[in-house]
Design a protein that fits this description.
The complex is a heterodimer of chains A (362) and B (348). Chain A has 362 residues and is α/β, with parallel strands linked by helices. Helix content of chain A is 35%, strand content 21%. Classes of the chains: A alpha/beta (362), B alpha/beta (348).
């Protein structure tokens, strides 16, 4: 692992991925190249992530969207080496943070990056917070881990300041409380405080509002927005909620069957999707102006032990033709910062109604 | 809270004189005792449901919406008698459910069915799909006469192929499992289905399939639904009427259009404005009411109006007088607020 990594490190600056959107020539903050992750299960090998490449530029919010089993969370977990092995195995790919391959760095360096340059926000704060340590101590610990010069008293002051910043009332008193004494929304705030404690360059938020009630979700979304603005951290937002994507993201990466199927700026993506799966996903969302049957994508997500040949979406795709059953479409550049992995992406540009209510009935 | 319920019963769309309602819930409450200490002394109550009244017609969908702990699930479970109410009555076609015994209770249980949220834990992993769907038929002695054919008919009804009959639940995706759950709930020809977050655990594309199926079944079988959900966009799609609950009580009830276009209660407004809109063009354009703080402890609810601690309109009277659920315009749209909104809100 280490030997191979050295070779990669040497080449890293040379193969800095070309800029994706034509907007800037700055190298990306994070670039994932051809990531492959498998999981061993009783039923066979699950190809959870199958050749995913994506980039995140400094300061931008990239939403990674997909349904369960699309590989979005596994992709996110791979960044910080959090895929549990076994059963998971990261087979291939490079994860470059400013050119440094995170798959090749030492354990010590990875620990330095975790919670330092890259921080994570999880769906369930109880899995991330230690139940037997007070919330204040946990955040203080995170601070002192990355700033050896910070004394106990100094850390405490910083934590109380951070808790106040994320909207935890009575921060002084809350400092001494345990996670179970916090409500779900407060815990999520505490976790965000911990994540931004060391001024990260990249925040990875995995379904950060999914477990929350709608009014609390609105609060946490506001907080994520302000936290992002203040820290100027780039953010990878993993979600299945297109409402959250529309509210927060700059750019969207859509995943299906372990692969990226579409990538675009948030507005163009919602306005005119260039992959039939994205089109179906957008059509499935109930809309106030449409009554009657909801549009839906027929069938079920693919079995990732034996994914369909060709395009993984073809069994559910209203546009599928012979070619889709045999040739796997690669993600290709459509210009204007848009990418699609559909053989017939150009036909979608004309905007045919792909998913009708009749099909939904089938 | 009791005067609040009287107001609904008197002024609601289906007042006491209305005998057409399939289901009438009157001043329903459920307290869970809190016991503390070595002697397990009664220390107080969590008022999970506290004076809830509503009615439901045959073939109608009433959604109960609200956040965790508002009492919507507890209400649903009392309707199917999985929980006994602490107070109040549940009338099914005018008959008090609590008074039913023996064979009459069996019959009522057949007519009122429930379906749960989690498609992974609500189906037995040791039973085939056939057995899962046939179980209620067997329990009610209806399997011998044409049971296997009935099971196939039910699977067909929910859009599952009969070839799935001998497979086990774990072989299915979440959406398929919910269809199996639906087939089972329909086995005894119920008139009323309590659906407790039936699609919340499903992916977006699958959710739409199941919701469409439920709507079609309602039309063909004339089913009434009590649809319990926190997902307001689905609720908007499926409901005829909506009840909004907060901390054990209904704060507003009305038709879908009344609730979505002219919400009267501040909580309803906040709830609707908090739904993320799936349209990036509208980002930042919409007025959003962000509530501060969390839902108070149901064991120690605020005095007066229970919402007042998070309400931007709260005044002195709100701390002292619990507002009654009142139908101000006489159009069946009732809200429990001293200062209800009366304009038309423009919500996307």
């Amino acid at each position: 692992m280490t030997e191979r990594s050295e070779g990669i490190d040497d080449t890293a600056p040379v193969v800095t991925p070309s800029d994706e959107g034509g907007l800037t020539t700055e190298p990306p903050l994070l670039s994932i190249e051809n990531l492959v992750v498998d999981f061993a299960t009783d039923d066979g090998l699950v190809h959870a992530v199958d050749g995913v490449s994506l980039t995140v530029r400094a300061g931008e919010i990239v939403a990674v969207v997909g349904e369960s089993g699309s590989g979005k969370s596994v992709t996110a977990m791979s960044i910080l080496g959090l895929v549990r092995t076994p059963p998971g195995v990261v087979r291939e790919g490079r994860i470059l943070l400013r050119g440094e391959d995170l798959r090749a760095v030492s354990g010590e360096r990875l620990r330095e990056i975790r919670g330092g340059e890259v921080a994570m926000i999880f769906q369930d704060p109880m899995t991330a917070l230690n139940p037997v340590v007070t919330v204040g101590q946990q955040i203080a610990e995170a601070l002192r881990l990355h700033d050896g010069g910070l004394g106990k008293a100094g850390a405490r002051t910083r934590v109380i300041e951070l808790l106040g910043k994320v909207g935890v009332p009575d921060a002084e008193q809350r400092y001494r409380q345990y996670p179970h004494e916090f409500s779900g929304g407060m815990r999520q705030r505490a976790m965000i405080a911990m994540a931004i404690a060391n001024g990260p360059d990249l925040l990875i938020a995995d379904e950060p509002t999914t477990a929350l009630d709608v009014t609390i979700q609105a609060q946490v979304l506001d907080l994520l927005r302000t936290a992002q603005r203040e820290t100027e951290a780039a953010t990878i937002l993993i979600t299945h909620d297109l409402g959250v994507v529309a509210e927060l993201a700059d750019r969207v990466v859509v995943m299906y069957g372990g692969r990226v199927v579409e990538e675009a700026g948030v507005r163009p993506l919602f306005a005119s999707p260039r992959h039939p799966y994205t089109a179906g996903l957008l059509a499935s969302v109930p809309r106030a102006d449409l009554d009657g049957e909801l549009m839906s994508i027929p069938g079920s997500p693919p079995n990732m032990i034996e994914p369909p040949g060709g395009c993984a979406f073809h069994p559910r795709c209203p546009m599928a033709r012979d070619r889709c059953r045999t040739d796997r479409p690669e993600l290709r550049d459509l210009g204007d910062g848009r990418h699609s992995a559909c053989h017939f992406a150009d036909e979608l540009a004309e905007g045919p109604a792909l998913f009708s209510a009749e099909e939904a009935a089938g | 809270m009791s005067n609040a319920t009287e107001a609904t019963v008197a002024n609601g769309p289906n007042g006491p004189g209305d005998t057409s309602a399939l289901l009438r819930v009157e001043d329903l409450s459920k307290y869970f005792p809190i016991r503390r200490g070595l002697l397990r002394r009664h220390h107080g109550d969590i008022r999970a449901v506290d004076g809830v009244s509503f009615s439901l017609d045959a073939g109608e969908t009433l959604s109960i919406v609200g956040e965790s702990g508002c009492g919507k699930t507890t209400t649903g479970r009392m309707i199917v008698r999985l929980l006994d109410p602490t107070g109040g009555r549940i009338l099914y076609q005018g008959e008090d459910l609590a008074a039913a015994r023996g064979s009459r209770l069996r019959d009522l249980r057949a007519e009122i069915q429930i379906m749960f949220q989690d498609p992974y834990s609500s189906l037995s992993p040791r039973m085939t799909v056939h057995d899962i769907v046939a179980e209620p038929l067997r329990v009610h002695g209806r399997y011998r006469a044409g049971g296997p054919a009935r099971v196939r008919e039910l699977l067909d009804l929910v859009g599952l192929s009969a070839g799935y009959e001998n497979r086990y639940a774990h072989e299915f995706s979440g959406g398929q499992r919910q269809r199996v759950g639906l087939a089972r709930a329909l086995a005894l020809d119920p008139k009323l289905l309590v659906l407790d977050e039936p699609v919340s655990a499903l992916d977006v594309s699958i959710r739409a399939q199941v919701v469409n199926q439920m709507r079609r079944l309602q039309q063909t079988l004339g089913l009434a639904y009590v649809f319990i959900s926190h997902d307001l966009s689905i609720v908007r799609h499926i409901s005829h009427r909506i009840a909004v609950m907060y901390l054990g009580g209904i704060v507003e009830i009305g038709t879908r259009d009344q609730i979505f276009t002219a919400p009267q209660h501040p909580y309803t407004r906040a709830l609707l404005s908090a739904i993320p809109v799936p349209d990036p063009e509208l980002r930042g354009e919409r007025e959003r009411i962000t509530l501060t703080g969390d839902v108070p402890d149901p064991a120690d609810p605020p005095s007066g109006c229970r919402f007042r601690t998070r309400c931007w309109k709260a005044r002195e009277i709100c701390a002292t007088d619990p507002p009654a659920l009142a139908d101000h315009a006489g159009d069946g749209h009732a809200s429990a607020c001293h200062f209800p909104e009366n304009d038309v809100a423009v919500l996307p």
